[in-house]
Every structure is written in structure tokens, then in C-alpha cells.
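Standup notes, protein team

Yesterday: finished cleaning the Geodermatophilus saharensis set.
Today: Dihydrolipoamide dehydrogenase structure.
Blockers: none.

Input for Dihydrolipoamide dehydrogenase:
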Amino acid sequence: MSSADGTYDVVVLGAGSTGENVADTVVRGGLSAVLVEEHLVGGECSYYACMPSKALIRGTEALDEVRAVSGAAAAVTGELDVTATLERRDTFAHHWDDSDQVAWVEGAGIDLLRGTARLDGERSVVVTGPDGGGTRLTARHAVAVCTGSEAMVPPVAGLADVRPWTPREATGAKTPPRSLVVLGGGYVGCELSFAWHALGSRVTLVQRMPRLLPEAEPQASDAVLASLRDRGVDVRLDVDVTAARRDGDEVVLTAADQEVRGEEVLLATGRRARTTGIGVETVGLEPGEYLDVDDTLQVRGVPWLYGVGDVNGRQLLTHMGKYQARQAGAAIVARARGEEVRAGDWSPHTATADHAATPSVVFTDPQVASVGLTSAQARDAGLPHRVVEYPIGSVAGAELFADGYEGTAVAVVDPEREVLLGVTFVGPAVAELLHAATVAVVGEVPIGRLWHAVPAYPTVSEVWLRLLETWRG
């Protein structure tokens, strides 16, 4: 499928998981594709985000699970091995070597070009290689921008000058810092606070807003806050940092009435689109902005250009980027064949789950697993809804899983159509409950039919039955 003259059906900027999936989907559909990547093939998730961060967390999570079971707890006689944990993290990041990913790309029939890509007018991309040489690529059908997002430095005086960590540095650190200040209480800030505290750092989490995980159900925010504080993390809410400076080997952050110090400071305050320096201005778009796309991920006003994954700002999650990639790839193939691209809910060509059925997991202890709308989102959208809540620890399977299991299940139900709008689980190991909820939300399975989805006894999934009983009253 390679092209001697630099012409391909599809040119993909960025060989992270999103770009890989766009290219794979169009190649499977009979088109030719080339990936352009200046760094590591596999992208952020493989080397700096999902995989290495969860590897940092998993050992502590496993120990907590064993210590919560009488009898098994007696077998735990030592503490977490920090060196072994970091070594295991390195294996999941493939020691920052992308040769396995490159082999997969080649085996899938996708070409790979190393270098920095810039759009240069309609369906044209110029790539500057590592040696400084240039290559022009032309797309017959589509250019897909899959350049992702990057950590944002908030406008705090002096902050950029203190050499703060981004999540890249935080997941790849070779040793735990003596002390770490985490700015931001979203899922990245909470997860990495949990991880580095368990690995021996003294952690202070500073959140500008009045609660952690502000997009989650309040029950989730409260549970994660309580757990972090119980473990010894210093969590400070409603604190607006106004200045930063270096004082010897420490970073000093200043707020109106307090000062926070740490050997390192981690920015977990949000992300921005990687659209600067890639030539979007040559096709009439604004550098630095998220790409405005329709549900087929086609950039509005530029029909041959697609913005897929984090770069469009719809859902900044790896699995949603891969989902968008499959949908966009299918739409590109259909258009290339002259076939109808179907719009509307749950079409093979549209990413409608972005709006109504996005699943996510916060890998703290307790975990927070959610899909669809929260009660606040349903209220803000003006949707009829009723909230149903049940303590997961009252289910027999949870009692077996851990002594004193604490957790909560929250369902947001449309009482008129009697379907689920959203579900949130809070508790140990609840991530594995999430896909059933996702299927129920995506399928708009009627409550009356869910009664016939019988959970096995004794499993934690029996919480589904208890939610339905609570709904019925």
C-alpha cells in the first residue's frame, strides 16, 4: 500500500492510539494510509498516561484488596516495593521504545513517516524529517489530524519558570520526590496524588474549586476526598494559587492566605489542543484552538479534513479517541466509495457516544466508574430524571469481596421513558461493573427489561437488582 510519489488516500498526522486506529480502519476498508509521527508511535497513552500511570497504582490497589480480607491480610508482611513498582511501570511503557508499535503498523499495511507534519493547503502535508529534509504528502480523500492535546500551564505568575512537572514527567519519574504538590483535582490530579503518596512522597493536592472531581456525582467526590485525606494526602479545596517561585530545592506556591511547598509541582489543571505549528492557518483555521467537528469528525467548513481524538476537545479519553477513530475511518471509507454517510444516533459513521454514553474510570481507591449523564448534567439539559442510589456494601458479593466494603451506586433514570440516562459506581474494583452499565445506557434498555437481566449470586453485580428494587419502591 506504499506510495512512491507521496500520494495516499489518507494522510494521518499523529501515530498515537487515535491515529493508529484511523489508519487501520481505512486500510481495512481498502484505502492506502500513511502515519506521520515526530515522537513515539503509540502516543501518550502507551508511554506517559494510561498504561504507566495505572501500573504505578495497581500494586497499592492489590495490597488494599488483600488487606481488606480477614485471613488473607495476615499473609501481607511487607510494604510496597517501590523499585519493583517503577520497574514494572517501565515494562508497560516498553522502556519508551516504540519498536513493537512500529512493527504493528508495518504489519497492518500502513506506511510510517518520521518527522514533523504541517498542513500546506488543501489535502497537502509537508513533513520535515529528523535530518531536516522535506517530504510533501498529498491525500486523495482525507487528512486526519490526530495530534492530541498537551498539559496546559495556568496563568500563574512565575509558574512556568519553576520547571513544573506535567503528567509526562509525573508518570515517568525515576524516583519518588520527597514532596509533591499537585495542582488540580480532576481525575489526573487525584490518580497521581494517590499513586505517589503510596510510593512514599508527601503529597499536597491543591484544588481551585470547592470539590474534587467536579464533573462527577457528589457521592464520588466525597468518597475520593475522604480516602485521600485518610491516607495522609493534604487536600486543600477552594485555593486559588496566584504565584510560584523557587526557594532552594523547593517550589513555593502562594495563595491569598497560605503557602504550599514541595520538591516538585505537578500541573493537572487541564489540557489544550496540539494545533499550534501544524499549519491549520493554511486552511483557514485558528492555531491553538480545538478543531470544530461534526459527528463524523469532519472539520466544519473543510470537508477533506478530520479532527479525531483529543484534538477536537469532545472527550479527552483514550478509549473515546479510539472510538472516534473507528467512526471517522468508516465515514472516510464510505465517502471515498461514494456511499451514503448515515447521520443520526448510533450510526456506523458517527461518534454519538461522545454526547450520551461516554464511559470513564478514575483509578483511585475507591474507584469511580461512570457512564452517561450525571444528575447535574441531566438537570442542566432540562431532562426529566430521577436519581436512585444504593450502598454497594450491602450486596452479598461486596461483603465477600472486602470486609467493611464501602461504596455507592447511583443511577439517573428518565422516568417518562423508563431508561437509564447515566450510572455511577463508587467503590473498590467497580471499574469491572461499568461495561454492563454502558450497554444499558447505549441500548436504552427499558427498566422493565433490565429486571430480566439476572445478576449471579453472590457477585457485586447484584447491586443492579438492588437499584431496580429501589426504583420500584
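Follow-up from PR in the comments: Residues 316 and 372 are 15 Å apart (CA to CA).
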